[in-house]
Amino acid sequence: MALEIQEGVDLTPLNTFGVPAKARALVIVHSVEEALVLAEKHKEWGPYFFLGGGSNILFTRDVEETLVKVEIPGREVVDDGPDGTYVEAGAGEEWHPFVAWTLSKGFPGLENLALIPGTVGGAPVQNIGAYGLELKDRFHSVEVLDVKEGTLKRLFSPDLRFGYRHSLFKEEGAKHLLILRVGVFLPKPWVPVLEYPDLRKALASTDDPTAEDIFSAVMAIRRHKLPDPAATGNAGSFFKNPVVDEAVYQDLLKEHPGLPGYAAGEGKVKLSAAWIIDRLGWKGKTLGRAGVAPTHALVLVNVGGATGQEILELALRIREDVERAFGIRLEFEPTIY
Ligand SMILES: Cc1cc2nc3c(=O)[nH]c(=O)nc-3n(C[C@H](O)[C@H](O)[C@H](O)COP(=O)(O)OP(=O)(O)OC[C@H]3O[C@@H](n4cnc5c(N)ncnc54)[C@H](O)[C@@H]3O)c2cc1C
C-alpha cells in the first residue's frame, strides 16, 4: 500500500489556534491497513507525531517528526444489549457528529460532551470532559498501533490511567501509540447527568429533561461562552483547574474570600482557574496578538495573526502572575509543540 508523503506542509489550517507552522513531512492515514505501513516504514520515516483535528495543540515551531494525520472513518453499533450499547468509531471521525449520531440512533449517554471539537481519536488523549461528564465515564476500549513494533493492541480503562484531562497517551513513554479506533459503552437505563450548575440552570424549566434536551442545552451554553475557532483561533480551555489539598484551600480562602473550590475526592479540592485568572484582571486582556477571551478567562485566543510563541508567552505571563499571587502553578491543557 503506497502512502503519500507531502513535504513542507503549512499547518495553519490544521490547528484551531490558526497559528503558522510547517510540517517537514505529512502523511495522512485513512485506514488501519495504511497505519500499518507506518510501522513498516518506521526506520525510514520515524519518529512520528500524531495529529487529529488540531483543536488541543499549540504549535510554537515547525514539526520535525513525520506528522501523521489520522483520518480513519467509520461508526458502528457493535452490540446492543440489556445493560447498554457498545459503539465504536474510527479515530478520524469528528467527535461532535459522532455524539449526534449516537443520539439519533437512540443511544444516549454522550450528550454532555456535545460540541467538543476534534476527532474521536483525540478524545481519549486528554480524557475530554465537560458539563459533569468525562469520556472515561463512557469509555470501553481503544485499538492502538504501536508504530515502533508494528503490533495492534486493545487497551481498556485501567490501562489508560485516566485522570482529570489526563491519560496514558499524554505520558512520554506512550508517544509511539497511535489510536486507530475508540469504543464507548452507553449504559442502560440512561440516567441524565445534571450536576453541573450552568446546565441545571438552563434546564430549570424543563421537566424530566431528555438526552436531546441536554444535548441542545449544552450546545447553547457552549455557543454563548466559547469563541468559535472558525472566527477566533483558540483551543478551548488553556489551563487546567488546579487540584490542591483541603488545608491549602482553606488557607487560600482566608486570603482570597470567595475562591470557588469543589470536592475532588481524597481530601483534595479543585479550584476554579477561571476565577483566579479573572481576579488577576486578565479576562479580555491582550498581549500583542494573543489575548484572553472576554467571555471565558480560561480561553486564550489568537486575536489575529498571532504566532504560537506569542500565545505561549501570554500563557506563561498568566502562569507567573497566578503563582506570585496564589502560590499555585497552573498546568496547560493543550499539547505544546
Ligand atoms: C472551542 C473549543 C472548545 C473545547 N472544549 C473542550 C471541552 O469542553 N473539554 C475538553 O476536554 N476539551 C475541549 N477542547 C479541546 C479539544 O477539543 C479536545 O481535547 C479534543 O479531544 C482534541 O482532539 P483533536 O483530534 O483535535 O486532537 P489534536 O489537537 O489533533 O491532538 C491533541 C493531542 O492528542 C494527540 N492525538 C491526536 N489524535 C491522536 C491519535 N489518533 N492517536 C494518538 N494521539 C493522538 C496529539 O498528538 C496531541 O498530543 C476544546 C477545544 C476548542 C477549540
Structure description:
- 25% of the residues lie in helices and 28% in strands.
- It folds into three domains: 5-70, Uridine Diphospho-n-acetylenolpyruvylglucosamine Reductase, domain 2, CATH 3.30.43; 75-224, Uridine Diphospho-n-acetylenolpyruvylglucosamine Reductase, domain 3 (2-Layer Sandwich); 227-336, Uridine Diphospho-n-acetylenolpyruvylglucosamine Reductase, domain 1, CATH 3.90.78.
- It has 337 residues and is α+β, with helices and mostly antiparallel strands.
- A hairpin with a 4-residue loop joins strand 10 (139-146) and strand 11.
- It is globular.
- The protein is built from nine helices and 20 strands.
- It binds flavin-adenine dinucleotide (FAD).
Please tag this protein with its features.
single chain; 337 residues; alpha+beta; Uridine Diphospho-n-acetylenolpyruvylglucosamine Reductase, domain 2; Uridine Diphospho-n-acetylenolpyruvylglucosamine Reductase, domain 3; Uridine Diphospho-n-acetylenolpyruvylglucosamine Reductase, domain 1; 3 domains; five-stranded antiparallel β-sheet; four-stranded mixed β-sheet; 20 strands; globular; binds flavin-adenine dinucleotide
